[in-house]
Amino acid sequence: MASFDFIEPPVLSRAEFDRADLIRKDPERLAAGWPAARVLLVDHRGQYPITEQGSLRWTPAVDLGVEPAAGAVFLGVGDTDLWALRVEEAPAPSAEPRSGADRLTGDEAGLLATAIGVLNWHRTTGFSPVDGKPLDLVQGGWLRRDPDTGAEEYPRTDPAVIMVVHDGADQVLLGRQVVWPDRWFSTLAGFVEPGESLEQCVRREVLEEAGITVHSPQYLGSQPWPFPRSLMLGFEAVGDPSEPLTFRDGELGDARWFHRDEVLQALEREDDWGAENPDSRLMLPGSISIARSLITGWARAPKP
Asked: Engineered SS bond to 10: which of 28, 90, 96, 293, CB 3.0-4.6 Å?
């Protein structure tokens, strides 16, 4: 059993909208709903149009044609059918998901994550992995099918673990990737390998990245991360601050054990990545990241 919980679900994990998966398989229903539908236009960078309040700004589907546009993705049903479509450039004003999604409602954030994830899959899976033939796009953009053999390709999600490593008391281990600016720290993370359990991945990744052995990995929650197509599986694990840190795989440029009080101070001061707080030695990832949820949940949990 985990020693703490998320204070609230990660930003991209709060959606409750109806994905209406049965409608995806009904071409006549999809076509019938198109005239009243709304479409989210997303560019190759993941930017999307917003209202003055920062909410998703939808385009009437009829502005794009009388039938579902080529390459459009059916997202689900709200007050009407909701779709997404890749465009060269999102109409202004627009926002970037890593910095703008925290202004969205839970459903809006989930719709955006779904749109980006499936559209990114479209970009890389237009052709058969067997013989390179173009694949048909069916089921509202959720399936690619070989027109000759009927072989099917579905959207893929890459599982990755992300873990807050602490000492069981008041210290937490945070790392800085080589390419990050000084003072930017976050939790450790890594992709799950074939034949590996999530708990094994937690132990392996911490050992590879920071050179320490952790124990008691416990699952806390998950968040989609469609950059390009990951599912982040949040864990805690316990390590020993007296064990020397060694950056074995070269991903980290630095890692440090921070005291709970320093983390709490950074949270209170909103010392987020990119903020202008020169006096802080600890800058934390933004609120859209599950890393922030893990750090906040640990720091503000009752002390053991």
From this structure: 293
